[in-house]
Design a protein that fits this description.
Elements: E1 4-9, E2 18-24, E3 27-33, H1 46-49, H2 51-55, E4 65-67, E5 73-75, H3 78-95, E6 102-106, H4 116-127, E7 131-134, H5 141-151, E8 159-160, E9 167-171, H6 175-178, H7 188-197, E10 201-205, H8 211-215, E11 217-219, H9 226-239, H10 245-251, E12 252-253, H11 255-262, H12 267-274, H13 278-290, E13 295-298, H14 300-303, H15 308-321, E14 331-332, H16 340-347, E15 352-356, E16 363-365, H17 374-379, E17 388-392, H18 396-399, H19 403-410, E18 415-420, E19 432-435, E20 457-458, H20 474-484, H21 493-500, H22 507-517, H23 533-537, E21 543-544, H24 554-557, E22 565-566, H25 570-580, E23 591-596, H26 610-613, E24 621-623, H27 625-630, E25 638-642, E26 647-654, E27 662-666, H28 677-682, E28 710-716
Parallel strand pairs: 6-7, 6-17, 9-10, 9-13, 10-11, 12-22, 17-18, 18-19, 23-27, 24-26
Antiparallel strand pairs: 1-2, 2-3, 4-5, 4-19, 8-14, 15-16, 20-21, 23-28, 24-27, 25-26, 25-28
């Protein structure tokens, strides 16, 4: 076969950069950036290019595997695996209380497939299970809960208007490494530098002098103190008469309650908590309020503290109070060829608190419950106890707090099935590991990211290569399991009704219907030039659907009955009161632990790529020189980090990028017994062993894990 160039796009992280795949004799030879992609314009990061090594990795699972009594895996046929899974699952459904006995965890990569999450949710709804868990409870769920409180839907999330803003305040994000999160901006480094080039400012609030903080203005903050800072910024703006009265009058309700709520939090009162001088907070508040346009943006670092929903809420409240919501250069709302928020709202799929967890009484967030509770949900007897667990595109033993607890709990299951690329720390406990395709082996559309893109944009891709071995797409596997237990994997009852008469729509057909009936669709030929999959296939590099997102659309984005942004819901008033009652420092754990994203890692699944692990890749804790010196720790020494929940050991990297009193450890490491040979050899420690799964230690409104600002102590490892 001749060598071919095929156009596709990356689905590792949110920029979704354009790629060109060189394929020879049906095998992927190399990947390179696509210079003709309208947004990424020839940019792709090292992870995207290195996906060639994942695609061709000899450690990949490419045939169905069954675990034997000794823990080893043997190859079986698809029919053998699916028939046994179906028979055992039917027995559990019949004898263990129906769908409530079945759980499913799906990891971060599932969001980058247009079909995978739809079929997971559809399957769980079809069997009547509420035990759906995802990576969101370690990442983004409180951002969604804040949106529910503010706008009436968890799916309405404003994004900063990077191309037009005069001031960008970044709280707890490192976009030069993450390339954007809940924000699709493929050339985000250029976008941030352009703000400066046109005379604007980029200010980064972070406990660490991160890569983004080094490139722009940095204000160091004590971990888990973002809420105090945001309350003080609002207090100054209100007290000094800097609020946008028209925006508060026209766009919002509860402005006066918010004013009263922040009144007791001037910068002088919060300085001890934030470690930011009061004068600096006042200058920042005035700069935000007086800028011609400004946007406030926060991500993972701001979401993973004890009051992450409050922080996410206050970020948007700042945009409203300064008159920068739904305004050019401020925080704007993305538009897409499918009006996903409105569609899912009409279907009731943008849910919050429609059901509660059996353990801890936490609300569901868009149908998912806190993954931190899975171990107890497996081990606690009674109605609703999980007896069967499916895990797709995820490794919760590493990504969920207290993975040791979860690993022990997995042995109590009657059935466990993993759908993955590798045998991981989690999937090695599964009865079956079923081989999934990589993103290069499936067709796709960036369904989850349409409204997060900085420009109106759509791209469809066909598979760049055929699946290796016997790998199948996740939706196909779920469909096959569903048919064996007699259900149609669909959340909407009309689709389940069609399934009962033998009509099962594919994801491709559903998406095409959504595009053709959407605001820019071809209406099946009634609108000339409108969108369909066929139209997008004629534009393989992607299609820009407009110069920029429109403003003045708030009334179409707010789902509260009064069509106003709610600035003082009862839940937020209660959170501010809870913040004031937060306990002080524990002398046994004087330091604070934060997470760290690395340029050549992506959560827990790219440590088996030799190209990304080359050089001096060592899992190390970043420690300030003063903290290391006080404890007799030298650069490279093995140190021990201890929290109330656990302890880990790893080398220390002494660096002044840290602020005193703060330790940073990258997440996703600790592949002692999974993930492939390169990953296992790299070792490292599972930093999430330092986090707690106790219900009282989870964020109350979203059930989020407390992963940022954990009190710890640092000491030399025994014998170091």
């Amino acid at each position: 076969m001749p060598t071919e160039e095929r156009v596709t796009f990356c689905r590792i992280c949110e920029p979704l950069c354009g790629l060109r795949a060189t394929v020879r004799d049906g095998e992927l030879v190399k990947l390179r950036p696509d210079p003709d992609h309208p947004l990424s314009k020839g940019f792709a990061c090292a992870k995207g290019i290195a996906m060639t090594e994942v695609q061709n990795d000899p450690d990949r699972v490419t045939q169905p595997l069954r675990r034997g009594p000794d823990g080893s895996f043997e190859r079986v046929s698809w029919d053998q695996a699916l028939d046994d899974i179906g028979e055992r699952l039917r027995t559990i459904l019949e004898q263990r209380g129906g769908g409530g006995s079945v759980g499913w965890y799906f990891g971060n990569p599932s969001a980058f497939s247009y079909s995978h999450p739809l079929w997971v949710k559809g399957f769980m709804d079809a069997i009547g299970s509420r035990h759906l868990y995802g990576a969101g409870s370690q990442d983004v769920n409180n951002r969604f809960v804040a949106s529910q409180l503010l706008y009436g839907s968890p799916l309405v999330v404003p994004i900063p208007d990077l191309e037009r803003t005069d001031m960008l305040l970044i709280v707890g994000a490192n976009p030069l490494v993450s390339h954007g999160s809940v924000l699709t901006a493929p050339r985000i480094k250029d976008s941030l530098r352009n703000i400066q080039a046109r005379g604007g400012r980029v200010v980064v609030i972070d406990p660490r002098r991160s890569e983004t903080a080094r490139a722009f203005e940095h204000i160091a903050i004590r971990p888990d103190a973002d809420a105090w800072l945001l309350l003080s910024l609002l207090q100054v703006i209100f007290a000094d008469g800097l609020e946008d009265e028209r925006a508060l009058r026209v766009q919002a309700s509860g402005g006066e309650t918010l004013r009263a709520l922040v009144a007791d939090h001037p910068p002088e009162a919060t300085e001890a908590a934030t470690r930011i001088p009061a004068a600096e907070v006042r200058r920042l508040a005035h700069a935000l309020a007086s800028a011609r346009s400004a946007a406030v943006y926060g991500r993972t670092g701001s979401c993973l503290g004890r009051h992450g929903t409050l922080v996410s809420f206050l970020l948007d409240a700042l945009n409203v109070v300064t008159g920068n919501l739904d305004r050019e250069g401020g925080a704007i709302f993305g538009t897409g060829p499918i009006q996903l928020e409105g569609l899912l709202h009409r279907l009731g799929a943008d849910s919050y608190d429609t059901s509660r967890s059996r353990i801890g009484d936490f609300p569901e967030v868009i149908g998912t419950l806190p993954a931190s509770l899975m171990a107890e949900e497996i081990t606690t007897p009674g109605p609703g106890q999980i007896r069967a667990l499916f895990v797709s595109a995820g490794n919760p033993v590493l990504s969920v707090p207290n993975g040791d607890e979860l690993e022990c709990a997995l042995s109590e299951l009657e059935l466990m099935v993993a759908i993955d690329l590798y045998i991981t720390e989690t999937s090695r406990h599964a009865d079956y590991v079923l081989p999934a395709t990589t993103f290069l082996e499936r067709e796709d559309f960036p369904l989850a990211f349409l409204t997060f893109s900085t420009a109106p944009f759509a791209q469809w891709t066909e598979a760049a290569v055929e699946p290796r071995g016997e790998a199948r797409q996740e939706w196909q596997i779920i469909d096959a399991i569903s048919s064996r237990v007699g259900v149609t994997p669909a959340s909407a009852w009309p689709l389940r009704a069609l399934g009962r008469v033998g009509l099962r729509l594919s994801p491709r057909r559903l998406l095409d219907l959504g595009l053709r009936l959407g605001p820019k669709g071809d209406l099946f030929g009634l609108r000339r030039g409108g969108l369909s999959i066929a139209k997008l296939r004629r534009h393989p590099h992607g299609l820009r659907l407009g110069a920029r997102h429109p403003t003045g659309v708030l009334d179409r984005k707010v789902f509260h009955a009064d069509k106003r942004v709610h600035l003082a819901p009862d839940a937020i008033v209660a959170e501010v009161a809870a913040l004031a009652r937060q306990n002080g420092r524990d002398p046994h754990f004087p330091l604070r632990l934060i997470g760290l994203r690395e340029l050549r890692s992506h959560n827990s699944w790219m440590h088996n790529v030799p190209k990304l692990m080359a050089g001096d890749r060592v899992h190390a804790a970043r420690v300030h020189p003063d903290d290391a010196r006080a404890r007799g720790i030298a650069d490279g020494d093995t140190c021990r980090i201890v929290s109330a929940a656990g302890a880990i050991e790893l080398p220390a990297k002494i660096t002044d990028e840290m602020t005193p009193g703060v330790v940073a450890v990258p997440h996703g490491w600790g592949h002692g017994n999974g993930g492939g040979r390169v990953a296992a050899a790299a070792g490292g420690a599972n930093v999430n062993l330092l986090a707690s799964t106790a219900p009282q230690d989870l964020e109350r409104l979203a059930g989020m894990a407390f992963l940022n600002g954990i009190p710890v102590r640092l000491e030399p490892a025994a014998g170091a």
